[in-house]
Structures are given as structure tokens and as C-alpha cells.
């Protein structure tokens, strides 16, 4: 079964001075592979493009897939933007799905971090050597100064459940925050603290300057119902700010505000899935564009891409 994804490109409506870059519409679509295998890119708002803009990474599955969550092994591939060089990097055999593929993200122009099953690895793209991993945990979004974010869902030997920063070249690991560190904020979130062992952190991502992180905190409400809360904090674990129930597929707009599709934010605006911007406490700033779901944003925040809900 072939999958058709509808992507919607938006130009921002308000809020930024200057002019958006022009878009070249004369480029032709070029087919790289025609063997019928399914392909996918990565996490939402995790660019497949290398930092120097010269290469693209993607996941190629061994066969086609029937659903977005169907597990299907495959390989990571890279091609130059001029398509003159196109090659397989390494196998990804355990649990990749079309929904997020291998969650590949560039560490620098020669190294890519990715998920295989419940572990993170880092590969050198030219020789296919694994230079880090497997490390247990769930990868965050994007790297910063050759460091990645890791969400650990449960204790792993000396490492407590929580969010870590890892230097992929030295292996140095630093704990940023644990789920239980948010217990003092439970009342404000309207959550119960029991059992705090079931709280989890996901989708950790650095602010553009790397001084803060945002993450999704999954907690229990009334003992059973799971609530997904957006929080932000400094990278030393200080100055925790509670946004509240998260918008769909949030990301940093700049170093101080978030953007996402509004389906449940208590901000006085209709929950019609429009693309909006808020401060870190959930206060409405502006409406940026129309409805969508998964989200990607150009670095200048003039252009956005999303897809139908």
C-alpha cells in the first residue's frame, strides 16, 4: 500500500520583521529509487538536511507498509543534494516504523544519531561505523554543539529515569531533570503524584541558543488518565515553567516562546488546530497560520510545513 501524505506550506501571518526568502519553484522532482520500498524521514521538525545543507538522510524500509505504525526493518540512506552520490549508511533492524522512521538527526556534517528499538546509536555516514551506542533511552529532537538529548523511561543501572545530555564523542552524560523533580508542581498541573514512577519525559528539545530545554511530561490525572504537559526549564534543571496541556507537536519559536497547533490550550482562543505562538506559561502571543498537525518550521520562522489532521 502506497501512502500519500498531504503537506501544507504556510507563510506566517504576523509577528516577524523583514521578508521571507523567495522559494524556487523551478526545481524538478527527481526519483532516487523505484523498487517499491516505502521511505520516511524522521521526527517532526527534525530536519533531514545536514548542517552544511549538502546532504539528506532518510529511512528506506525493506518492503512497503500497510500502516504508519507497522514495524518494518530497513536502512538509513544519504544522498548529496545534487544526487550524484546516494548510498546506504547502516541497517536499522529493530522496531522502525513509517511514523518516525529511525528518528535520525544530524550531530554534525559527518555523523547521525538515530534510534534502533529502545536504544540510541551514532553512525559515521561515510564508513558506516557506529561511534556511540547502543545507549538505552529515547532520543530528543535535534542536536546542539555535538550533544544529544536522551529520555530514559526507567532506571538503567546507575542512571536514573530522566532527561540527559550526552556528548556523542566522549560519551559524557549529564542528568538534566527527573520526572520526580516535577512533584512540587503537581497541584499546579492538577495532577496526582501517585504513582510518580509512571511519569515519563518525552520529546526533549533545546531552545535555539541551547540554554533551555522543553519537554513533554506524561503524568496521571485522577489516578488513571494520562495527561501530556508541556514544561520548560534551564539546562541545569532550574527555573521550571509549566505551560499546561501541550499543543500538538510543539517546538520552540525562539528562545522564549513556543509554537504548535492549538487543539486544547487554555488561552482564550478557539481550539481549531490553528498554528499559534505562546510564551512559556501558555499565554497567547499570536496566530501564525491555519490548521495542521505534525509541524516543521524554517529557521527564520517565516515558513511552516504541516499536514492534515
What does this structure look like?
The protein starts with 6 loop residues before the first strand and ends with a strand. 1% of the residues lie in helices and 43% in strands. The chain has 309 residues and is an all-beta fold. The protein has one helix spanning 186-189, and strands at residues 7-11, 39-40, 55-61, 74-80, 86-92, 105-106, 111-116, 119-124, 130-136, 138-139, 147-152, 162-167, 173-177, 200-206, 212-221, 225-234, 241-245, 248-252, 257-261, 274-279, 284-291, 295-297, 303-307. The relative contact order is 0.13. It is globular, with a radius of gyration of 19 Å. Mean pLDDT is 85; it is low at 1-19.
- Mean pLDDT reading: 85
Q: Major sheet: order of its strands?
A: 2-3-4-5
Number of helices: 1
Question: What overall geometry do the principal axes of the alpha carbons give?
Answer: globular
Keywords summarizing the entry:
1 helix, 23 strands, 4-stranded antiparallel sheet, disordered N terminus, globular, mainly beta
Short recap of the structure:
The chain is mainly β and 309 residues long.
Write the layout of secondary structure elements.
Blueprint: E1 7-11, E2 39-40, E3 55-61, E4 74-80, E5 86-92, E6 105-106, E7 111-116, E8 119-124, E9 130-136, E10 138-139, E11 147-152, E12 162-167, E13 173-177, H1 186-189, E14 200-206, E15 212-221, E16 225-234, E17 241-245, E18 248-252, E19 257-261, E20 274-279, E21 284-291, E22 295-297, E23 303-307
Antiparallel strand pairs: 1-23, 2-3, 3-4, 4-5, 6-7, 7-8, 8-9, 10-11, 11-12, 12-13, 14-15, 15-16, 16-17, 18-19, 19-20, 20-21, 22-23
Amino acid at each position: 500500500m502506497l501512502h500519500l501524505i498531504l503537506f501544507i506550506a504556510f507563510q506566517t501571518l504576523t509577528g516577524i520583521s523583514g521578508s521571507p526568502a523567495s522559494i524556487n519553484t523551478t526545481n524538478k522532482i527527481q526519483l532516487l529509487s523505484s523498487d517499491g520500498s516505502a521511505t520516511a524521514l524522521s521526527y517532526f521538525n527534525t530536519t533531514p538536511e545536514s548542517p552544511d545543507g549538502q546532504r539528506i538522510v532518510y529511512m528506506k524500509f525493506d518492503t512497503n507498509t500497510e500502516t504508519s505504525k507497522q514495524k518494518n526493518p530497513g536502512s538509513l540512506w544519504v544522498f548529496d543534494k545534487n544526487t550524484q552520490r546516494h548510498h546506504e549508511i547502516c541497517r536499522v533492524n529493530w522496531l522502525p516504523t513509517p511514523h518516525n522512521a529511525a528518528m535520525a538527526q544530524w550531530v554534525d556534517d559527518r555523523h547521525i544519531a538515530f534510534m534502533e528499538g529502545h536504544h540510541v546509536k551514532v553512525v559515521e555516514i561515510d564508513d558506516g561505523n557506529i561511534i556511540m551506542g547502543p545507549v538505552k533511552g529515547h532520543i530528543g529532537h535535534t542536536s546542539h554543539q555535538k550533544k544529544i538529548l536522551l529520555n530514559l523511561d526507567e532506571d538503567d543501572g546507575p542512571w536514573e529515569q530522566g532527561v540527559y545530555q550526552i556528548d556523542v564523542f566522549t560519551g559524557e552524560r549529564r542528568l538534566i531533570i527527573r520526572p520526580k523533580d516535577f512533584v512540587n508542581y503537581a497541584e499546579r498541573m492538577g495532577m496526582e503524584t501517585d504513582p510518580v514512577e509512571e511519569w515519563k519525559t518525552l520529546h526533549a528539545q533545546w531552545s535555539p541558543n541551547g540554554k533551555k530545554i522543553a519537554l513533554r511530561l506524561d503524568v496521571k490525572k485522577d489516578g488513571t488518565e494520562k495527561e501530556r504537559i508541556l514544561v520548560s526549564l534551564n539546562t541545569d534543571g532550574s527555573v521550571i515553567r509549566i505551560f499546561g496541556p501541550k499543543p500538538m507537536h510543539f517546538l520552540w519559536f525562539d528562545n522564549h516562546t513556543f509554537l504548535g497547533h492549538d487543539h486544547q490550550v487554555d488561552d482564550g482562543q478557539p481550539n481549531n488546530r490553528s498554528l499559534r505562538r505562546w510564551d512559556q506559561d501558555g499565554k497567547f502571543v499570536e496566530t501564525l497560520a491555519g490548521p495542521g498537525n505534525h509541524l516543521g518550521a524554517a529557521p527564520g520562522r517565516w515558513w511552516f510545513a504541516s499536514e492534515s489532521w
